[in-house]
Amino acid sequence: MATQATAQRRFSFLQIAITLQTLTIFLQAVSAGLLLTSSYGETLHSVGARVMYGASMLYVLAAVLAWKPGGGSPRPVWHASGFLVLASVQVALGIAHIPSVHLPLGVLMFGLSVLALARR
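and the corresponding structure tokens:
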């Protein structure tokens, strides 16, 4: 019984991490719109990028914690690591001001994050 409760707690942490990541990516889309229409949009988008990157790192941590002790499938770790790579590319493209790739990649990341959330 204790191991089932522990597994549920790990599952919940993983689900929370994916939810947080999805929410932060969505908020980045909102702040991108504000970037075009307000004076504080650039600051908000810049801070949001850091939060989104942190949420991607939290997703990796949650996936490792859910996988390692229970000996389950490492697939969530690979998914989370892939997201961290996408987030790294996204940040680099944003810093380099390459919106022709930055924007579609953001849409792809949001879609993949919603898909990961739906799978949990």
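(Above: one complete record from the training split.) The helical segments are 2-37, 41-67, 75-95, 99-119.
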